[in-house]
Amino acid sequence: MAAPRAQPEADCSDDSSQDWSIVSTVPDKYGFFGQEHVQTNHPPVPREVVLSREKKWLRMLSNWDYFMQEKHSKLRKRCRKGIPHSLRPRAWQFLCGAQALQDKHKVLYQSLTEQPGDPKCLDDIKKDLHRQFPQHEMFCSENGVGQQELFLVLKGFSVLDPEVGYCQAQAPLAAFLLMHMPTEQAFWCLVSVCHKYLNGYYSHGMQQIQIDGDILFGLLKKVAPQVYRHLKRQKIEPVLYMTEWFLCAYTRTLPWSTVLRVWDMFLFEGVKVLFKVGLVLLKGSLQPRLKRCPTMYETLEAIRQPPPGLLEEEALVQHMLRLKLTEEDFQKEHSRQVAKRQKRLQH
User: Cα angle at 315 between 70 and 137, to 5 degrees?
Assistant: First the structure.
């Protein structure tokens, strides 16, 4: 197992780009200054439970192929319970296939970062570096170690996949991964997520995100018909509320502890987890407030401001697991929306 990553020392006190109402000189448990990212209303997991889960995950990671092939349902159950924080980086690399990619291409990352790259992509990346989690200890200092590593990861991806190049929504994903693992491992995780989970999301025109928005809306009709009718009546297109959710895989939407739990499931179960989170947010944000949302403005505001209790990690996970959606439901809706889009293009 790789040694824990040494975090760069951060000094954000002289960074004039920050505009915080409350500035703390001590980061929270996730590395953030100036705001609370820890869910204090959820009781901590007892130490003995944490140790037991760590032992189980160490055993799984040491016998990964066996558990993936023979104990698939048990692995899914443990991902849904939450991966122990100490083992999360290693587990994520195995879950998404990044470890296999890195083992197969041992010197490729270094080669990619040494190539000149597309000047336009590099310029766009540099413009976005300071926007990625500026309240985090890794990224709060301009030209600090965190921003330098972020540049290398995004540059490497743009060289590896010149057809996609660079998309703004990749930056928070890369930054998120860098908070948990060394640069090369973060790079391969980003490659795997973009190519295997979010394939087509960052291509020009972003047609896949539009299709998935329609799929999300179609599934909403099944799980929350009143909310579906409300959005349809107000002619609110899915791209107005779900684009950032899916493009950034909720790294810009949810409390941090909840993001981590969502990713534990997302990297095992795939993109359907993003749909389930979106359905929970839509149903939980709008169903109790429909009478208070007479126009598009109030409706979109309600979606942007979900009830705080809904976002708490355990509550959100349980709401997701209670959704009455089968694999067949996802497949049917996908086929239906793809057929509808092809029919529109033919006319």
Answer: 90
